[in-house]
Amino acid sequence: MGLYSTVMESIEQYTGLAPAAFFTIAALMVVVYKTVCSMFLGPEDFKKPVREPVQLGDVTEQELRAYNGSDPNKPLLMAIKSQIYDVSSSRMFYGPGCPYAMFAGRDASRALALLSFNPRDITGNLDGLGESELEILQDWEDKFMDKYAKVGQLVPEKPTNNYEQTNQ
C-alpha cells in the first residue's frame, strides 16, 4: 500500500490534480491521439502492390520503347548492355516526369557510361568509350543486377522478309 499512496500523493503534488482527474485527462489524451492519427494515412498506405516481373525474353529496341512508363499497366523497363531490367520499383526515378525518365524504355548504356543526360547518348552503342567509362558502366550494371530483376535481352531489329511481301 505504501507505493500506491506515494504515487497518488506525487501526482497530486506535481500536477495539482486529484489522481482521478489526472488519469481521466491521460485517458482522454490517448483517445484524442488515436483518433487524430487514424485521420491521416501513413507512407505504407501509398505503396502499390509489387507485382512479379514479367519475363519478356528477346525484345527489339522498338518493342522496348512501349515500356517507358506511359502505360501504367505495363512494367517500367530499361536496358544496360542489352540486358533488360524491370525498374518498376523505382518509378519515382524512372517514371514519367521523373529525373531519369528519359532512360525508361531504352538501352541507356552509353548515357550511363558517360554520366550524360544528352538524348544523343541514350543508346546501347559503346563504340569509342574509354576504359574508365566502361568501368563506370560496369558499376551501373552491377547495381542494376543487385537491385532489379532481369526480364529479357535486346536483340537486333527483326528483318522484314521482302521475298514474302513481293510474292503475295
TrEMBL record:
Keywords: Cell membrane, Endoplasmic reticulum, Heme, Iron, Lipid-binding, Membrane, Metal-binding, Steroid-binding, Transmembrane, Transmembrane helix. One of its GO terms (molecular function) is metal ion binding. Signal peptide: none annotated. SUPFAM superfamilies: Cytochrome b5-like heme/steroid binding domain. The chain crosses the membrane at residues 20-41. Belongs to the cytochrome b5 family. MAPR subfamily. PANTHER family: MEMBRANE-ASSOCIATED PROGESTERONE RECEPTOR COMPONENT-RELATED, NEUDESIN. This is Cytochrome b5 heme-binding domain-containing protein. It comes from Rhizophora mucronata. The lineage of its organism: Eukaryota, Viridiplantae, Streptophyta, Embryophyta, Tracheophyta.
